[in-house]
Here is the input.
Amino acid sequence: MDPMPAKRPAAPFAPLDFQLVLLRRMADHNPDLVEDARHELGVSVADMREANRRWQAMLHAPRARPAASRHRSVLGAPESARERRIGDLTCEALQWPVPLWPDLRFEVLLAPNGVVWNEWLVRAPGAPAPALETLEDLTPWCCTVDEAARAFAPARPLEGTAPTRWGLAFTAPDASGVPHACAAEFTWGLLQRVGVEGPVPGRAEGPGR
Here is the structure.
């Protein structure tokens, strides 16, 4: 009887696979955008599923690496590493390029003890921020959590429905200047959709307030 062929070792988990993991979480909200991105990357639905399966296996392995080490092993050395002040504490911000979104960076914030505080997409240093003035400007994937919070301050954080999701509540005017109460949902820090609860009585704002 012929021996069983040796199982080929899986290829290393690469930056392309990591981008598929980001997209997999976004498919719940914007399947059409994810489909376009998948074609741009030249991968199949099965490739995306497999990348997500392998990522989850790494996360839940008995001897899983710390998050920062895992990102370094997958994405390589960070493009930048700098100190950032958050309240009374100083953390380290590590950033990696994401080819699918050239104007964004994947950022990991490390506490002084090495614990990861946050991991999400942010605007790349020097890249122009989107002009956010009205509801019509808030299209899927157009902005990050921080950009929306600054544009429509004061914004209130909302609890996300998963570890990779965030929410913001704020008031934004429509194109005619009527303010509306909004609840925006973000995945990996990137805007996915905005729920509009209705006009805010007794207030009138104009674009570019």
